[in-house]
UniProtKB/TrEMBL annotation:
Assembly and oligomerization: Binds ribosomal protein uS19.
Species this chain originates from: Bifidobacterium hapali
Name recorded for this polypeptide: Ribosome maturation factor RimM
UniProt GO BP: ribosomal small subunit biogenesis; rRNA processing
Example GO molecular function: ribosome binding
């Protein structure tokens, strides 16, 4: 099973490290308190399920989802206690947060938040297919890119330079975030390992050290 990147966004408020930004409320929908929301989560069915609890930025105000529905690419929520159009219009622009998933459960599910991956040192895996030393430092994860397949953007420890001018020609690599290439992630030690095929990492030649 390939690891999953959970695309909810952590609050930038240091007092709310256990809350994740889930959505921003938009315009009112109809006359009975429903609101349109812009979702920041990859799990809207879970976060917007009836009975789910969402919070204000400071975590002091709770909003309980009474019902929800998706229409094309958007979600419409009815929150408990928000029963009129005036009520829903008053919420326009408010961001709602949810509790972060249990880290142990995420490990079991092989799921990761981008913030957990960014900053990790990238090392070559044990018995890697390139035949290079185990643990050789390749670089540092600087971004996680979305797409058909999640990609780790790695800033290279040893950028590739033009032999004639000495100018840097390649300073980063994109690594598919799949088990076959990223076999191990150690958040305690702040590193992950990769077993890249030849040619994926600029400057790493099979059977030679960069």
């Amino acid at each position: 099973m390939n690891p999953d990147v959970v695309r909810e966004q952590h609050s930038d408020d240091p007092q709310q490290l256990d809350l994740l930004r889930v959505c921003r409320i938009g315009r009112a929908q109809g006359l009975k308190g429903e609101v349109n929301v812009y979702s920041f989560t990859d799990e809207p069915e879970y976060r917007f399920a009836p009975g789910s609890v969402l919070y204000s930025r400071d975590g002091e105000t709770e909003y309980i989802v009474e019902r929800s529905r998706s229409v094309k690419a958007r979600w419409i929520l009815k929150l408990e206690g928000i029963d009129t159009r005036d009520d829903s219009e008053a919420l326009n622009g408010i961001e709602l947060f949810g509790e972060a998933d249990d880290p142990d459960e995420m490990l079991e599910d092989d799921a990761w938040y981008p913030k957990d991956l960014i900053g990790l040192e990238v090392r070559l895996a044990e018995h890697n297919g390139l035949g290079l030393p185990d643990g050789q430092v390749v670089g540092t994860v600087v971004d996680v890119l979305d797409g058909f397949q999640s990609l780790l953007k790695v800033r290279l420890e040893h950028p590739v330079r033009d032999a004639a001018t000495g100018e840097v020609t390649e300073s980063s690599a994109l690594v598919p975030f799949v088990d076959e290439i990223v076999p191990d992630i150690d958040l305690d030690e702040q590193y992950l390992t990769i077993d890249p095929p030849g040619g994926l990492i600029p400057g790493l030649a099979q059977g030679s050290e960069s």
